Every structure is written in C-alpha cells, then in structure tokens.
Amino acid sequence: xxxxxxxxxxxxxxxxxxxxxxxxxxxxxxxxxxxxxxxxxxxxxxxxxxxxxxxxxxxxxxxxxxxxxxxxxxxxxxxxxxxxxxxxxxxxxxxxxxxxxxxxxxxxxxxxxxxxxxxxxxxxxxxxxxxxxxxxxxxxxxxxxxxxxxxxxxxxxxxxxxxxxxxxxxx
Length: 171
Description:
The protein has a single domain, classed as Rossmann fold. A 5-stranded parallel beta sheet has the order 3-2-1-4-5. It is built from 7 helices and 5 strands. The protein is α/β, with parallel strands linked by helices. Mean pLDDT is about 85; it is low at about 165-170. The chain has helices spanning about 5-20, 35-40, 55-65, 85, 110-125, 140-155, 165-170; strands spanning about 25, 50, 75, 90-95, 125-135. The protein is globular, with a radius of gyration of 15 Å. α1 runs parallel beside α2 (about 35-40).
C-alpha cells in the first residue's frame, strides 16, 4: 500500500510538534485561511497567530474560517515581505504557501521579488528551534522561478543553524 502525502500535509506535519508550545506563529500567505486555521487549532490558546495577505478576499475568507479563534488570529493586509514591520518578537513556527489564491485571480501571485526578502526576514526572526515550512508550486512561471531561487537561497544556509529547514527541502 502506498501512502500519498500532499505538500501541505507534509508542511503541517513538520510544524505540528513545534506548534504545541509556540507563542508566535505566522502564516505568511493567508490565502483561503486553511493554513491559518491549522496554526490556530494546533497552537496553545495564548499563542498569537499572524496571517499576512495582500488580497482583501483572502483575508475575509481567513477571518471567516478562523472566527472561533479571533482572540488569537491577527490578519494583516500587507505583503509577506513586510513581516519584520509587524512582528517584533521571535517566531516559533511559520508557513509560506506560495502561488496564487485558489478561486481568485491567478494573475495575482507571489513573486520571487517579495518571497525572497520575506523568507530572509522570517529566517532572521525564527526562535531557537523555530520551524519554517515553505510550499512552492512550480506548475506556473512565477512558481517555478520562486522554487529555483528559494532552492539556491536555502542551499546556502549554514546547515548547523538551519538543519530542520534544509532537511525539509531535501526530502
């Protein structure tokens, strides 16, 4: 029997253990709110979950899906490259689910110009033993470029410091 795991399921599995004791959690690309909901459901009640997106439609859906967690979820209507302007404290767990908004305008997509700085900021903000999951979709032009550029960026990180990040992209 063959088990199939989607990239999102793998990312959630990577984050799940760290979320149990997390204080600050980030969904860098809120999209339709699925990842934000996962982060809110799997982090302690006192944790703060930040969700970033540039599309009002995405944030409205994220707020709707996470209404039961409105005391801990903060939706921010800016691009993920500005995460450092909104979060001062160390980040325990974060996810980037790149690409375009499912059901939205596919012309509006994450780009290497915003994603690389955002990932750089997030790596700087990660707490000791913090976990970062990145899901890229190379099936469209912008996604293919993001995957290539992220691969180069992450390959240059010191393995001793970022071992969990690197092990996730190598498997």
